[in-house]
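Record type: ASSEMBLY
Status: queued
Input:
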Amino acid sequence: MSFLSNALGSWWLWGAFAAILPTAILLLYFLKLKRQPLEVPSTYLWTRTIEDLHVNSIWQRLRQSLLLFLQLLLILLVMFALLRPGWSGRALIGDRFIFLIDASASMAARDVKPNRLADAVKKAGEMIDAMQSGDVGMVISFTNAARVEQTFTSSRTKLKAALADIEQTDHTSDLSEALRAASGLANPGRTGNAEEGDVAVAEALPATLYLFTDGGFDNIPNFSLGNLEPSYTPIGVLDAETSNNVAVVAFNTSRNPERVEQTQAFGRLENYSAADVEVDVELLLNDSVIDAQRTKVPSQGQAGVQFELTDFEQGGLRLVVQHDDDLAVDNSGYAAVNSTRRARILLITPRNDALTLALGTDEAQKLAAVTQLGPEVLPSADVGAAALTEAQKNYQKAADSARYDLIIYDQCAPLEMPQSNTLFIGRAPPLESWQAGKMQSPPLVIDVDRSHPLMQMVSFENVTIIEGFSVKPPRGSAVLIDADIGPLFAIAPREGFEDAVMGFEIFSVDEKGEVLVNTDWLKRLSFPLFVKNVMEYLGGGRSAQRSTSVQPGEPITIRTDAPVDKLYITSPSGAVFPPISRERENTFLFGATDVTGLYEVREKPGRGEEVMQRFAVNLFSPRESDLRLRKTIELGAQEVSGEAGWAPARKEMWKWLLLAGLGVLLFEWYVYNRRVYL
Amino acid sequence: MSTSPSTPLLEPALLAQLERLELVSRKIFRGRMKGERRSKRKGQSVEFSDFRSYTPGDDLRFIDWNLYARLDKLFLKLFLEEEDLHFYVLLDASASMDFGDPTKLQYAKQLAAALGFIGLCRADRVRIEQIGPAQQTPGPVLRGRRSMWRMLDYLEQIEPGNNTPLVDGVKNFCLRNSGKGVVVLISDLMEKAGYESALRMLLAQQMDIYVIHLLSPEEIEPDIKGDLKLVDCEDADIAEITVSRPLLNRYKSTLAAFIEHAREFCTRRGMMYLMARTDVPVDRLVMNYLRQRGLVR
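Status: finished
Output:
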């Protein structure tokens, strides 16, 4: 592309033009210079005046020719404009643009200065500046959710203001929602009409989708771009094979199974950099350091840290990696440890001495308060609400109001599922999703899932079961004991609760009413261990001594012991959110988990009130912590590679030259009329 | 450039004011005839000066007979003699004086007429001359109020264009008028050869010298623009200029230096200098400025 592009077409014409005009101006100027004679009384003073000026006469001459110079400058500007000087520049593709800006946690990385988000905003701003008049643009920021910062507008000021308003978040990233928002405008919905066929409800408007991201999200294979023309602008250091970042990818606490008074905190660190690093890891309890370790994390590998805490009941733990890396937000992990409370367990059984005994030990009493009732408290199917006994009414009320954390149905089953966790022994729950097989004898245990908390340390190796049936759990469940006849013990979630169903009885009653022992499990050591697991896991022991953690932006369900109307939540920075109201029986839903850290839950407003619970918000996302850029991203069937998104274009300045010429002309007019001489 | 000839040189109202004034000389000169002012000489007048002893030959009319009666000695009474004043107005009538509105020459004539009238009223010897060559007819000698019309007639017939160099004109004047007195030079002092030698010549006459430097407003603040060829009306000298703000500023500073030099030259030599603009009315010039300078009272 040449610098000059002659607007006159032929160089010969231009040369003639360039030669004649300045000459003509010079001639006209000298013609104009004929001085007007003027008779004066005496030239005495004038001669003396100009005598002094002759000293710097060259400058005087130049100054006197100001008008000539202005005219020559004007004609030079016009001639230069006619040459149409230009250079190879760049322009945006198309006339409708959607700017998708990633604001997820990884965009806070400082591998580009000052950080990736600022770089993205700067690059998007450059593109907005390059928009022609009449072009329209739209700004969407996305994390795990999308936010339309500015709808389609041709105002560059509004677009840039919207860009400036994008805030860095701690969220993970997910492009799909942003793409849906963008494509909703470029690919309007279509309606299927039997008479008219497939009709678009609005005119399809093609648009260019400028994506400013580091690619820290999953590919989106099931997406049709339609009219969208994607362009991916990678933000960060493009060719980096590694990234300078050490992250806490997991942090949790649990009771030491061997020493009950001890709590263990486990953390997992991951090193994404090219070299092994040795880092100091600090454990803070309520912002004061209580322990520290030095650990070595191999390059591209992981390392674990473990801390022992004695006599620790509750509080907020924070694990900090002292390492100066590109991303700060993942250098801390949080764990909220809430106080243990005794679980409330209801046992409904005709008679089960072994279970009663296991639930009645001193250790078990520490974990839970157990109420035992007979199966007669369960309402039967053929009785209306009016005919219920007092005991049945009480049971119904307790089951509906979630008074118990766990209800164990031994050799019996209710008509409706209660608002609590359940354990069914020898019966299937009254749900269509659970199906019981035929009673068979004897089932042979093949496998036990000992990784599940319910079956931890429970050995089934020499347990004999006389008869049992297979349970067919709903989707999303976990089979805990597999036998030759099918699943024998399974657990499945149900609206925030969990139901465990055991396909064999421990004691059974035959037709004659005699109590029979159905298994020798109750003689084994594993039985009381199992009961303890049940009390801890299903009986609300899950919340005790286990931390609750969600990722930023995810909602969290909070349960309270006592029924309260409102909860007051304090953010890690100390800001108090508006109180949240109860959703269902003692459950609260909280969604403003935008920043990582420890959140405090109070039942009464005010910082001085007792903290009832804590929960933690952690990034814990290898996708965000791994700061390497994606070279390409897959959007539907299309693979978009990282490029600047500019099309080459010739930039010309003749407009500005003509404007400057007009300015010179105005100045000349002013000088001529006002007789201003510099 | 010229004023309409119908304008009288002296307005009647001005005449009434001028009658009350008199010309003042800072030196006491000897006049040729008895006048209205005191002289250093003793003589015949009503103003007593001193006594002296009688010597034979003295005029008996001046013996103080009362004193002789008391002292029995003859004393002669001496009286101050009153003299006239020689008052000259030297008028520059060169072509450069024919500029301005009113022209500088017209203004100079009015001024000369006013000053001459004051002198005539006080019986001074008044002579108005224009600077010119030696062969030029000198102006008439005037005395007494009746001569006013002769003076005005003489002034009226003075025409601009008498481009004699100042020094020559003054030399001729000095040769013709050797006596002492008060001389008022009315000129624009625009002499390429310089006005200093002319003034020195006047000074040698031991006259009481007043220099009235006449400048028109057009000369003080020239209202010109563009590229100009300035032509001198006396010697057709040419100065090419392109008017610009700095040039005008420089002209003004040159003019100020010129005036300041003339003022300093005169003051150092005991001459009285007065710069007069032609846009200041003649009556105000006479009644205010010349009074302050002490030429009239």
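Annotation: The radius of gyration of chain A is 40 Å.
Annotation: Chain A touches chain B through 25 residues (CB under 8 Å).
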